[in-house]
Amino acid sequence: MPVELEPRAPVAHKACSPCSGERMLCKQVSIESPSVTGREWVFSFDVPVPDVPANGARIRVMCAGACYHPRRSPSLTSLTSVSSGSSLATDISVEGDFPMSLPHHGYRDASLFPGYEVAGVIESLGANVPEDCGYTVGDRVILYPYEGVPNGYVEYLVVHDLKYLIKIPDTMTLSVAAMLPAGALLAMNTVFAAHEHVQTLLKQRGENSVCKILIVGTGGLALWALRIAAYHFSNTKDRVTITIASLKDDGLTMAQEVQRVNVVQWSEDLYEKQLIERTMDACQGHVDIVIDFGTTSRSLHRSMQCLSKGGVVFVIKDVADRLLPKFSRRAEEWQICLKSVEQGSLEQLRELVELVASGKIEPPPHTVYPAEDAIDVVRKLCHSEIQGRAILRFYPAD
Q1: Among 334, 338, 333, which residue's Cα sits nearest to residue 319?
Q2: How many CA atoms lie within 13 A of 291 on its CB side?
Q3: How far is it, in rounded angstroms, from Cα 79 to Cα 27?
């Protein structure tokens, strides 16, 4: 059912008064550099409610996924881009990829947690929006993470072009919908990219051939990729095998619960040779494709050694920009290929909504927290205390 647009009782904002020039205020949360800064990193403050764009809409944000994605700045170029569901401590490289100290960037920077995963309802439509635009006030929507997408950790945000909005079926909760625009979409695009290579290999090798895929990581990205791949390759019967290389214990358990796939634990306490041998045993030899969400130099180097000749490692673009130049010569020597994957398309996001709403793809576990508890949520993420995804709730969403 559509969410009612009544204001949240505890929040007492000024009413909009065109005559007096007073502006209505709303809450914004800024989640910045985590505890390595030695300072507070979560802030809550009042900001003016943005005006409704003439050709767009104003969205009341109900849920926002706790995802982090650094902006390109001199102080943050070493950071990686991953989606929540695994801790900051395990997802950011400890091999020199993380700067020793990070400056404080100001309350509204939100450099690590801009809030790209947004689900809410249309609160207002612009004056120039035609009646047959396909949207009405009260529609439940998510926001495609286009270039320049506004900070999602705020009670109201504006969209200048309605094409970036996607309606959410009444059967889907907004907390689930909030997981789709960033991490799930990126995972989907990565699986689609891998599918092209799978099709080529199976065609070249003949009818009884098998293609082996290794997915590295157990955070939100890896769990989405596992579910999407299991659905996407369901028609290939036994010709595609999937193995999860788990980066932590709880991820190992979660991966085993999702699908009947091979699971190997990549414990950082073991030597590289032992980890590679363990992976080879689980995969019954070298693999053809690695989808690596590990984000570190060590993880990528290990993934490359698990590949057969002609194999491909798919890496997130932000990580690829940093690591691929370092490994390109070695990849050429080993006759393997390193490919970067960017955010998926708007049409892919529409398809993803349909697949999740229909139950064909099951979302990973997630926990919803009040936005006021953001500082505790980030602390738990830093210490791997949250399984699956973390969602911040600004209003009662469903």
Answers
A1: 338
A2: 30
A3: 28
The pTM score is 0.78
Q: How far is CA 316 from the centre of its chain?
A: 11
CA gap 214, 81 in Å, rounded: 20
Between CA 246 and CA 282 the distance in angstroms is: 12
Instruction: Report the candidate in 102, 170, 114 with the shortest Cα–Cα distance to residue 143.
Output: 114
Cβ–Cβ < 8 Å for 351, 9: no
Between 240 and 385, name the one with better pLDDT: 240
d(CA 294, CA 324): 14
| Residue 211: DSSP 8-state | E
Q: Name the residue with tokens 């881009």.
A: 81
Could you tell me the maximum CA-CA distance found in the chain, to the nearest angstrom?
76
Among 227, 219, 275, 220, CA closest to 248: 219
- Nearest partner of 214 among 285, 320, 267, judged by Cα: 285
CA distances from 134 to 128, 163, 317 (A): 14, 10, 34
Choose among 175, 216, 201, 203: nearest CA to 365. 175
Task: Give the residue among 34, 141, 168 at the shortest CA–CA distance from 90.
Answer: 34
Listed residue (348, 68, 321, 346) closest to 189, CA to CA:
348
User: 170 or 111: which carries more pLDDT confidence?
Assistant: 170
Q: Which amino acid is at 296?
A: T
d(CA 36, CA 100): 8
Per residue in 339-365, pLDDT (tens digit) is 999 889 999 999 999 999 999 999 988
